[in-house]
Amino acid sequence: MPAAMTVLNVDLDGLTWKSEQRTDLSDYLGGIGLATKLFADRWRPGLVPLDPAQPVVLAIGPLSTVFPLVTKTAAVFHSPLTGEWGESYAGMRLAPALRFAGYDALIMTGRAPHPVYLVVTSDGVAFRDARGIWGLTTEETGRILREWETGRGHRSTLRIGPAGERGVAFAGVNVDTFRHFGRLGLGSVFGSKNLKALVVHGNRSYPIPDRKAYREVYDEVYARAVDTDLMEKYHDLGTAGNVLVLNGLGALPTRNLRQNRFERAARISGEAFAENTLIRKLACPGCPVGCIHIGLYRRQFGTGYEYESTTLAYDHELVYALGSLLGMTDTDSVYALIEKTELLGLDAITSGVLLAWATEAQEKGLITGDQLGVRLSFGEPEGHLHVLDRIVSQPSDFYRTMAGGLAAAAATYGGRDFALILGGYEMAGYHTGYGFLLGQAVGARHSHLCNAGYSLDQKTGPDLDRDALVDGLIAEEKWRQVLNSLCICLFGRGVWTVEMVQKALGCLGISSEEELLSGLGERIFNLKNRIKREMGFDYRRLEFPRRCLETPSLQGRLDEEVLYDLLKCYIAKAGV
Q: Which structural domain, as residue segments, surrounds residue 56?
């Protein structure tokens, strides 16, 4: 394991920083392992998520910038959305920027006396006054910081929008262009610390101990990424290619999951976006795949022939949450909603699932047009755009509740049966069956799909093997703790087998026996679950929305008794 790690500690209370060499962290490798350990040491039980004393940890891994497909930075924090574990990942230039600045991890605590942004370099941290950019959108903030700060071509720029500043519980952090720390409210944590942005860059270099062995491993990883079909899906249509596939399987959540198929799916499919709007594909630094699909959105902003064009990234989760789940029937409607969440700095999945609930809740009379200030309808974006603005501006008690996320809204106004909440946060875009529902609800990452339950569902035959399903979820969960400690993009998990991981670590002089790696996955899994319990998370209190049982899935209509039996099985086998 790595001998020493450099941890940068930032105290926003006093606007001070300290860099330290840590030799006691090698058992956690890097990435999520390192971030989990650092968070566990600094987290303050009993304090609310937005208390300034609560830490934010960003961390990279030993393979970051060294090998293809190792592109992620891990973030750990106390989630204001769930009140529990917060974990998120972002790509683009952040991991290389931290590496070349010389840091394996960055810890931020406290609250600045006024809005600030940080410039993190090899020389340490500079604290800049951000009062002049407070209140600006993510796009405006990014543009200004790129003009103000040096490091062009190498720097990474993280920033929040008005949503994070105003404490929306599902505000995200935009990273460079088109990438985000999306789920569970890291943007709100930044805002609570008066932290508008970070700019990170550096110029350090690192010798490779065994260059010949490194070259051989690099070439093998590269060839597996570009000369096989392992990554073809991600380069070709990207994850938006899932739309028609899931629709055909009866697994595409539509109109707040009233339906499992969307009759207009072809109009918002990956194929439709590519044929009508795609202008380029991007890759994170150090990745040869190019999975980021960028489309052109042309809109009218005034009467007459007044048009402007902008570029936006799209993928399956965005098309699901802001498309099929809201009944949107064309790419422009989806783009309008993507752009709104992007500029305000909102998580797109939570935004879409919350809007879908609000649309149905208004139909059922649980909330009124007076509360919303608009009439919502599936398939019509204008009302939903209005609601997103008001969630951020929060002009009323109703919108202050909405800013707390779907669980808060449904607890206050009703409609829990059709509120698509799993494990305390909003459902991702797969209605495949038991594996997905259980997997998202119990996921140790507690923010998305880190045990691939949706994939296990698609491999399950007509006879459900409950033990095999639960064993598969746990095994995948623990292996992904290792991949996330290395900060490998999970799209590339088929490229990065256990053998490839061992070879890569070995040529850098890092011990990599398989039992050490499996032990690492187990240790991180257990540590996360210990912290989650301390935060109040209890697997035995998990509930599944009735809508997920009423609407048929890929596996047909699901049995509530079977689902809760699977949960009991998971609790017993995982020891949680």
A: 5-200
